[in-house]
Design a protein that fits this description.
- The protein is α/β, with parallel strands linked by helices.
- It has eleven helices and 13 strands.
- The strands form two sheets. The chain has an eight-stranded mixed beta sheet, with helices on both faces. A five-stranded mixed beta sheet has the order 10-9-11-12-13.
Length: about 350
């Protein structure tokens, strides 16, 4: 079995910002057990900034970007050193991978990253991945490590993704309310927007809304996603074994997507332009019961410049984002077509990702 495990900052740190080494040790032991049973694991870990916060002095006077660069730089050393010592106890080697969103900007970069992780797996090494906050700035950052973990799980065609936070899952109301309960299963047809809380954690960058969006996108690509409480004992073992009594939220996997679609699904941050489509085209694209490509008559207008094989953001006439796809024609040639008929799809279904409604 192939599993991506994302561990959030609130799981890895104590209230004072210091690393919770005892809890890290418990989680590492569970991952070591999976590794020993020949499961392939990717560990996506937060905690570098939080670890650095306990080590740096007088960083409050710096601007937010400089603060993050300082804290993540010194904190990452402490974080990975702690993991190394913990995995050494089980004779397991780890390989550190620090990435930015730019590392996935083209199909070539994407495949290079996939080859790197495959090489580590083939060598019996567990990849430990984190965003490189020392060089990332706001425009180039992942939403948080939830997004990164979803991308990696899809890229490596994993069977499961565990997103471990300090909350038991997606609640049907305010988690603090005694009447609320954890929704145990979410299918592609489940509408969970009304339930998701928008509050953020103390140390993390995202929130439950982000987790829900990433979980649904990843599940739609054919991966079972679990949001669970990483502070609970045996959380990884319970999820890996499919323990039905363990409290969590399971996003059930849809049909498995081709590799190219998985890359496109997570590449909306690298689109070159936006194409506005009419209501007929929007309805056809959003009809998940059939495979529909974007044809020339469905285009209302184009915003921005692009060349053949660039990624385009697709919106309807109301400004709602429908999806993203790889265009099959240069803008100049498309513009010259005018009202002429063009038989080939502007964006073929095989290179098109439509967001779940």
């Amino acid at each position: 079995m192939t599993i991506t495990i994302k561990i959030g900052s609130n799981v890895l740190t104590q209230a004072d910002g210091m690393l919770h080494v005892e809890r890290m040790g418990s989680l590492v032991k569970e991952i070591a057990d999976l590794h020993r049973d020949h499961h392939r694991v990717i560990l996506v870990t937060s905690g570098a900034v939080a670890a650095g916060r306990s080590m740096a002095k007088d960083y409050q006077s710096l601007d937010p970007v400089s603060q993050r660069q300082l804290l993540s730089s010194i904190g990452q050393v402490k974080l990975i050193d702690t993991y190394k010592k913990l995995f050494d106890q089980y004779g397991i080697s780890i390989g550190q991978i620090l990435v930015t969103k730019q590392d996935f900007r083209t199909r070539e970069h994407y495949l290079n990253m996939r080859n790197c992780i495959s090489t580590l797996w083939d060598s019996g090494v567990i990849p430990v991945v984190n965003e490189n906050d020392t060089v990332s700035v706001t425009a180039l950052m992942f939403t948080d490590n939830d997004e990164l973990s979803g991308l990696l799980a899809s890229m490596m065609d994993c069977q499961k993704l565990f997103i471990l936070s300090n909350i038991d899952g997606i609640y049907n109301g305010d988690p603090k309310s005694p009447d609320s309960y954890v929704i145990s299963e979410i299918t592609p047809r489940t509408n969970v927007a009304q339930y998701v809380q928008t509050t953020k954690s103390n140390f993390g960058r995202g929130g439950m809304l982000t987790k829900c969006r990433i979980a649904r996108k990843t599940a739609d690509s054919g991966i079972d996603v679990y949001i669970a409480n990483g502070t609970r004992p045996q959380v990884i073992t319970s999820l890996a074994n499919g323990d039905k009594d363990f409290v969590c939220t399971h996003f059930t996997a849809g049909d498995r997507s081709p590799a190219i679609k998985k890359w496109i699904a997570y590449s909306d941050g690298f689109t070159k332009a936006t194409v506005i489509v009419n209501r007929g085209a929007a309805a056809a694209l959003l009809d998940h019961s059939r495979a529909a490509s974007l044809l020339h008559p469905g285009i209302v207008r184009i915003e921005g410049e692009f060349k053949k094989d660039d990624l385009l953001l697709i919106k309807d006439e109301d400004g709602r984002t429908i999806g993203v796809g790889r265009v099959s024609i240069d803008k100049d040639r498309l513009t010259k077509l005018g009202s002429q008929h063009h038989s080939k799809p502007i964006i073929h279904y095989d290179y098109l990702y439509i967001y779940p409604e």
